[in-house]
Amino acid sequence: MTKFEKATIAFLLVIAAFLGMVFVGFIIAKWRQPLGPALQIPEVTPFGMPPTWTPNPQPTSTLPATQALASSQIETAPVIAASDTPQAPAPVVGLCGGGSPKIILVVGSDTRADGYTYGLADVIRLVRVDFVIPKVTVLEFPRDLWVEIPDIADNLNGQDHEKLNQAYLYGNRGFGYTDDPARGPGLLARTLTLNFGTQIDNYAAVNMRTFTKIVDAVGGIDVTLPKTVDGRTADDRDKRLLFLEGTHHLNGTQALTLARIRIDGVFSRADNQDRVLCALRDKLTSPSVIPNIPSLLRSFQGAVQTDLSPEQLGQLACIGTQIQPHNIVFTSFPQDLFEQGRTYDPVFDKGVFTWKVDYDILRDYVRQFNEGTWPSEVIAPEIQQEEGESIICE
Known about the structure:
Helix content: 25-40%
Strand content: 15-25%
Mean pLDDT: 81
Distance between the termini: 69 Å
Radius of gyration: 24 Å
Shape: globular
Order of helices and strands: HHEEEEEHHEHEEEEHHHEHEEEHE
Number of strands: 15
Strand order of the largest sheet: 11-6-1-2-3-12-15
């Protein structure tokens, strides 16, 4: 082999190596690229407090005694003298490549269409994922809270308050009352932060049609009901609305029907939604489905509103297989805080159903949720929680 041939081969190897690195870099970039616009939540001092205000580590007197005790044991971090060479805190390293706890806004849209042009937020959940413990805590937000919504006043003759679930509707393309790139999920996230001090990192919204397709794609789910759920009415006695006590194997349509029944009230419906989500989690983390998760995600790309990247979705799928059942907790605000009421809505020119509740108490619960201190108790898997309290995935 001549020197020229050797030089040519060496040159081609260098080019091939360079192209290989470019290709790998491209794949990594795509792997880490969000699937949708990121949230743009401004830094605000919540609730109109003065600049020197700091959260009170003690809960309000209305909290249960066990939670008050847990909060009272939170120690104040020691004051460290400033130095000329401050050291950055060591990065948090958890399972599955995860770092610090992440809070994800999860939305279930009530639209039956394929897209997200319209639709109210029928389901509103905050999912706190801790990759170190590991633990997942899911907090339900009632959709009928009367809240201040940014960006809508110019389109509603100065009105800046509406129900929480309408923030999602007004943000999406059908109404387009916001310039937020994240549309409905973005406006809903900002509304939650403005009114309750939530700390949201990412979002994922699913419409009803996509939800049924996901459940069907994994072969259905198994849901165990502690008591019969009867959604039949005087006008509709169809047995599709009746779910007897016990375990049911449900397809996508049946799972959606169960999750939407509210004849026993919104808190009972939230409990049933949590049981459906538990069952879906169990199926997604079962050995038979795990190998198909990447192709499942690809098949629904574009059918879900999310700013999560494929890498982050892979981390979430991974952590789901690492968590002990008693560390997956679905919780809600105590029911006794809420009282039924009505609020005059200029948009509809009538009184609409809303919840009467002390928002300062809800903010204190949210603060503890953000910190991972509520719910703090460890719940044994065999204990069945009462409605409105915490439910664990068994």
